[in-house]
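EI: anyone free to look at a 235-residue chain?
SC: sure, send it
EI:
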Amino acid sequence: MCAQIVLAEDDERQARLVRRYLEAEHHSVVVVTDGRAAIDEVRRTRPELLVLDLMLPEVDGLDVCRVLRRESGVRVLMLTARSTEDDMLLGLDLGADDYMTKPFSPRELMARVRALLRRTQPAPEPPDPVLRVGPLTVDPVCHVVTAHGARVDCTPGEFRLLEAMARQPERVFTRDQLLERLHGIDRYFTDRTIDVHVKNLRKKIELSPRAPAHLLTVYGVGYKLSGGEEPRDAP
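SC: here you go
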């Protein structure tokens, strides 16, 4: 299970430790150090989980939870040095899904994270609309892709990747996250599976595959689909 996780923790040492354990289980982790940044990052990336320290500058963890619960179904695991029952109940009443007091065992933390992610259900989607990203359209019902007004023939694996990225344009997907989309389609995975699919898709949807404007590499992370702008010298 590979998830996108926001870690809101202003203690640099603690954040480094928790991030290391999360990334060891192949999660994609963004660290923020204050409550305002936590709210903004959850709104921007819509992660599966927010690991939230209670004592944050700018906006404290309780207020972060209060704000996000009005607008988001993100799972929240609250971390705090406060250990009284009243503090725990307040955090849970405000919408936290789980609560751990410091100091805690990293192994227990990861067990709690796994439990929360198992409970996370995909948000209900409207009846498969045609997805549009710049000059690209992806029709999940008819299984049709067009680029620059022309129909594009895609393999099942290529279509699954393009559809996943078109549902969340500008989101950066790691290779592991994209591999998750291929379960039941590609029987044999290699480290190069995603790169090969991306290379072939660029030949089909880009005006200039060597200077892609839409299916972009984010070096050291993975890939994203963008509306983009065509290169000026594109045919």
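EI: The chain has two domains: 4-119, 131-225.
SC: 👍
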